Amino acid sequence: MTIRHLPERLINQIAAGEVIERPFAAVKELVENSIDAGASDIEVFIRDGGKSLIQISDDGIGMTADELEIAIERHATSKLPSDDLVHISSLGFRGEALPSMGAVSRMSIISKKNDEAHSITVEGGKKQKTAPAARNKGTKVEIRDLFYATPARLKFLKSDRAETSAIRDVIERLAMAYPDIKFKFTANDKDIINLPATTSLPRLQKIMGKDFADNALEINAERDGVTLKGFASLPTLNRGTNKHQYFFVNGRPVKDKLVIGAIRGAYKDFLENNRHPMLCLFINIDPKNVDMNVHPAKAEVRFQDPSSIRGLIVGGLKHAITEAGHRASTTVANQALGSFTAPNNLWDNDYSQPKNPYRNVKGIEASQYTGSFYSAHKDISNTMLPDIDIEPSTRSYLKPEEEYIEFPLGAACAQLHKNYIISQTTDGLIVVDQHAAHERLVYEEMKKALKAGNIISQPLLLPDVVEMDEKSVERLLSRKHELEELGLYIDQFGKEAVIVQETPALLGQVDIQKLVKNLADDILNFGKTVTLKEKLEDVCGTMACHGSVRSGRHLKIEEMNHLLREMERTPHSGQCNHGRPTYIELKLKDIEKLFGRR
Ligand code: ADP
Ligand code: MG
User: Which of 119, 122, 282, 597 is found 20 to 30 A from 55 (Cα to Cα)?
Assistant: First the structure.
């Protein structure tokens, strides 16, 4: 056995294995090259999922004959002028794409620079000399028979359809970050993408859809010289997968666990674990503070200060969500109810400073309504739950109280199906999901009480025994003192049960069995090192969910009006903890439309 240096052709084939994994990767590298070349118009044309042909034309700066010769050499790049990996400001920098593609396909490039156009071809790694050619502007790269020189790889390609859709994805991703560049993508003579040059949100609308554009919050944040821009959906516009989340660092599409975690963190108050917001975020950071060279396909990055980036993302998103107040996405109303409209924004930008929702109401001071629904009606939330019957006469239709009509959420008129409060406003009517609204209010109230350190617990008349497996019992007891701080008092009860003595008073009547079991699961999910304080919002969420007044309870008109006023005073009350709206509004003019009066 002799050790020897591999021939360049083989080295390039090996590199191609990493850099050009599949046709879409070739398209990605080529489109990135065009973007780096300053193109304003990029056209991609493929046949058979890119397997037989990939062709990319741009109107960028182009290459001279000499540059063409070097460009296809291994590790040749124009993009690291200062010979270091610290100042990468382009999408490419590894100088591997062209030689790799040349090694595994039949590649030809035509390019024009300084009024002269030249072509060069490479087949299975064998180079031809450059020759004069005809081209108006920029560069055209043609890759035929990708992987013909490495048959093993050919076998692993997916169907033409799957490859075409992967190529579409990769072009769309880049197009999101470069709205001012025109993109066109044609597959087997069929137009797949046609994106005129525009600005950010209209470009995102074309790719992510109108729902997104209509319900996106603009993100604009900065921390330590790093900027975060982009758009993120209102929590009420959410999806069952995180595939609609796009993230870019210095214009480069990346996938990053840190970012996914940060997005989760920002939305966890508003969405269930299996629901995900749609968003598109752009981070701009001094290249020296991020390592782009982690992955041959450049799809991953490493931040020098990950916690600061996390803070930036969580902070930026939360701020935007808070600014949106209790606005819920229009899609909810649009999809389900045609002309029902989404709630308007009642809140000023600063979370801590709700604007006075009563300022247009004559003779009413906001301070008149600062008493909490819970403190004023402790009896209601604590003892009358969940199924106390109120005399039938108070349950049905009631004339709205005039004084409340001008309030944003109006005057309660009736409760339907034991859960929906109907209220009348000056120009429409409102339907409140009582259960969802309650849950949110309890949650916000709990957070406030915890912050102020005045959680009150309430002894149970009959302590409740919850049976669980031994591990769950241990896990809960290991957090005994932390739980007590939150108002929940538990003790061991044999090996496989705990006994619950007191619960947080704020919760009212609690489904103790479910609450305790879910808390045990939560603690398991948090892991050992995390304190419940750090996960306060999660814990609160779990508690609020089991402590809230369920649907199915009759409310008196006064109780309904109290609930409405409380919602008006509470930020984020337009949605429940799972991102569903807590109320919808139907304007009079829309009702009139429904009846053909307009
Ligand atoms: P990298 O992009 O990492 O530099 P590549 O192998 O993709 O490596 O490209 C090598 C070089 O060829 C680039 O640095 C650039 O100078 C030149 N080049 C490639 N594509 C184009 C293009 N479309 N227009 C102008 N120059 C290009
Ligand atoms: Mg490149």
Answer: 282
Q: Give the Å distances, CA to CA, from 55 to 52, 116, 521.
A: 10, 21, 53
Note the residue count of the chain: 598
Percent of the chain at pLDDT > 90 equals 39
Kindly give the distance from the C-alpha atom of residue 288 to the centroid of ligand 2, in angstroms, as a whole number: 20
Q: Which residues contact 401 (CB under 8 A, 6 or more apart)?
A: 411, 412, 557, 561
- Residue to mutate, 32, 34, 36, 56, ligand 1, most ligand atoms under 8 Å from C-beta: 36
- Residue 248 region by backbone torsions, left for phi larger than 0, else alpha for psi between -120 and 50, else beta: beta
Closest ligand 1 atom to Cα of 61: 25
| Verdict on whether the full-model pTM lies above 0.70 | no
Ligand 1 atom with least separation from CA of 93: 3
Question: Look-up: residue for tokens 């906001």?
Answer: 366
Residue 206 phi/psi, 5-degree rounding, is: -60, -35
Rounded Cα distance between 193 and 382, Å, is 58
C-beta 90 within 6 A of ligand 1: no
Strands 41-47 and 182-187 turn out to be parallel
**Which ligand 1 atom is at minimum distance from the Cα of 77?**
14
- Cα 362 to chain centroid distance, Å, stands at 41
Any residues with CB less than 8 A from the CB of 295 and at least 6 apart, and which? none
Q: How many CB atoms lie within 10 A of CB 84?
A: 9
CB 240 within 8 A of CB 276: yes
Please write the tens of the pLDDT for every residue from 324-344: 765 655 444 444 444 444 444
CA 408 to CA 343: how far, in whole Å?
A: 9
Q: How far apart are CA 113 and CA 135, in angstroms?
A: 10
Ligand 2 centre to CA of 102 (Å) is: 13
Question: With a 6 A CB cut-off, is 142 part of the ligand 1 pocket?
Answer: no
Q: Is 61 in the pocket of ligand 1 (CB under 6 A)?
A: yes
| Residue entry with tokens 């591999």 | 6
